[in-house]
TrEMBL record:
Regions of compositional bias (Basic and acidic residues) in chain numbering: 148-158
Entry superkingdom: Eukaryota
Organism the protein comes from: Ichthyophthirius multifiliis
Record lineage: Eukaryota, Sar, Alveolata, Ciliophora, Intramacronucleata
Pfam family, one: Oxysterol_BP
Comp. bias intervals (Acidic residues): 172-183
Chain positions covered by the region annotation Disordered: 147-193, 534-556
UniProt family annotation: Belongs to the OSBP family.
InterPro entries, A to Z: OSBP_sf (IPR037239), Oxysterol-bd (IPR000648), Oxysterol-bd_CS (IPR018494)
Protein name: Oxysterol binding, putative
Transmembrane segments: none
Length: 556
């Protein structure tokens, strides 16, 4: 049984039409709707009927009392605003009437609204004052919507144009504050420290990196390394925006499922959680040490030593390539071109929409080596984590014919909604030279009493161990006690992005352009337009492929 009964006024249809013609009263109506919405939220939480809304009837005398108190004519057609309905019983009988239904809310004795205006807007009566149901006039709303609206309209007119200008200025300031909050990630700067030397300095480093590092015996890791392993996010703005986006995505998915729409591919990820870069560019961050180590590998003949350099270049880039800043998903057919100061060229193209496949290709100076393969991500979300598995492959071939195949580990993001937000690269990476029967398996997170970013493994030739690997992809890498990489001494190279004239080039994306300017709303709109064009393009490509297959079968 309810401790309090709060009536929602039934607004007359004819009077409602006249109210709609007044801009101020439209605003007042919206304000009242917001209040009612908050009332409904509290009513659902505090309902004594286990949060189950349904219609309850009422006694005829009580209806008359209620209508008279609100000065609503029985002859006029009424418009009832939807509300939460709960059951009610009088002290001696159930309220029954087959003609109409009275709308009311139930609250407990401790109900308090966040908005103080709501508390003054509604009159509650204590249980001690509660009488029979015929005394409904004591429970009605404290104001009549139509009369109150008329008074407020007159007050608004008296304030004049200056007050309107002040309101517009406040709205503009609020929008600017919201835009600033949304730009937390898009304006995030690259905090990495890059190699600043010229080509000659780079060649010296290639030939002297072991001598340069031999004095370093400590196990220092990067500043944002977490004590338990991986990198933690220390930017409160990024954490706040990322978590708000996560909650938004969950809500969007829930709404689509409730509505019966199970096609979740059209749930657009909010662009405010992204940086103005294409994923085609960020997947190539894994080549940031190639001008040092892979160029050196191409100059030597020792195949095992090549393995060491390839492993070092791959794991040493993790501190750069693993980040909390999400790039823009590539659009089908999108391309990227770049290079490094040593002459290494890098390319990427989005070749598939479903599944999303990104193909990459890199070529060393004078074509000394070729690095190619593809990324194929598969995401799995937990209640407070996200796992990204890369099912792609990588291939590295040298002029003398040696070819090394290797896979990817997986990325584990934890603290997505609560706790410390961090990212870790886990799993095993296997490097294989089938022709020369050389294999290396490097494991992460399996070094006893060490953080999860520590690595360990062995290089084998014909099944025999010839070298052991130890270190941390956030600090240093050693083979047989000799240090090959230290984040304090060997800095990554920053790629040069080529301004290509191809219309497919990633820099032609309008959502990226507006995002870089901080125009989040326009960027989001352009992103959704691009996604729709991508879906249409994918259908056309599929249709064309089916025609090609059909024609080839006909020729046979």
């Amino acid at each position: 049984m309810c401790e309090y009964i709060i009536f929602q006024p039934i607004i007359n249809q004819k009077k409602q039409n006249s109210i709609n013609q007044s801009p101020f009263l439209q605003e007042q109506k919206q304000y009242q709707s917001e209040i009612i919405k908050q009332i409904q939220d509290v009513a659902v939480e505090n309902s004594n009927e286990k949060k189950t809304p349904y219609i309850s009837d009422y006694h005829k005398n009580d209806k008359n009392t209620f209508n008279n108190a609100l000065q609503i004519s029985k002859q006029e057609q009424n418009l009832a605003v939807p509300v939460i309905r709960t059951s009610f019983f009088s002290s001696n009988e159930q309220l029954i009437d087959e003609d109409d239904s009275l709308q009311f809310h139930s609250f407990n004795a401790n109900t308090e609204f966040n908005n103080p205006e709501i508390n003054s807007f509604i009159k509650l009566q204590t249980p001690a004052q509660q009488g029979r149901t015929s005394q409904f006039q004591n429970y009605k709303l404290g104001v009549n919507l139509e009369e109150e609206g008329g008074k407020k309209e007159q007050e608004q007119e008296n304030k004049g144009q200056n007050n309107q200008d002040e309101e517009k200025q406040q709205e503009q300031e609020q929008e600017e504050e919201e835009d600033e909050d949304e730009n937390q990630i898009s304006k995030a700067k690259d905090s990495n420290i890059y190699f600043k030397g010229n080509k000659n300095d780079l060649e010296k480093l290639q030939n002297n990196y072991i001598q340069q590092l031999h004095k370093n015996k400590d196990e220092q890791r990067v500043q944002d390394a977490h004590s338990g392993g991986g990198k933690f996010c220390g930017d409160k703005g990024i954490i706040q925006t990322t978590r708000s986006v996560g909650k938004f995505i969950i809500g969007e998915i829930g709404r689509k499922i409730i509505s019966g729409d199970f096609n979740l591919t059209q749930v657009s990820f909010p662009i405010k959680a992204m940086i103005p870069k294409s994923a085609l560019q960020t997947i190539l961050y894994g080549t940031c040490l190639f001008p040092i180590y892979i160029n050196k590998a191409a100059q030597i003949k020792d195949l095992v030593e090549r393995f060491k350099l390839v492993i070092t270049a791959s794991f040493g880039s993790f501190s750069i390539s693993n980040t909390f800043l999400k790039p823009l998903n590539p659009i089908l057919g999108e391309t990227f071109q770049g290079n490094y100061i040593d002459g290494t060229s890098i390319f990427a193209e989005q070749i598939s929409h479903h599944p999303p496949i990104s193909y990459f290709y890199a070529c060393g100076p004078q074509k000394s080596y070729k690095f190619y393969g593809y990324y194929l991500y598969e995401a799995k979300a937990g209640w407070n984590s996200l796992t990204l598995k890369n099912k792609g492959k990588r291939f590295l071939s040298f002029k003398d014919g040696q070819k090394i195949n290797y896979n990817f580990g997986y990325e584990y993001y934890s603290g997505t909604f609560m706790g410390t937000m961090k990212t870790e690269t886990l799993g095993s990476v296997t490097f294989t030279d089938f022709e020369n029967k050389i294999e290396a398996i490097i494991n992460t997170g399996k070094v006893k009493k060490k953080p999860s970013d520590y690595i360990s493994g062995e290089i084998k030739v014909n099944g025999k161990v010839v070298s052991t690997c130890y270190g941390s992809y956030l600090g240093f890498i050693e083979f047989d006690g000799v240090r090959y990489w230290d984040f304090r001494e060997i800095l990554p190279l920053q790629m040069n992005v080529i301004n290509c004239q191809l219309l497919s080039d990633h820099q032609k994306r309008q959502d990226m352009f507006h995002l870089s300017k901080g125009n989040i709303k326009k960027a989001q709109l352009e992103k959704e337009i691009g996604e729709q064009l991508q879906r249409n393009d994918a259908k056309l490509r599929k249709k064309h492929h089916e025609q090609i297959v059909k024609q080839s079968k006909g020729k046979k």
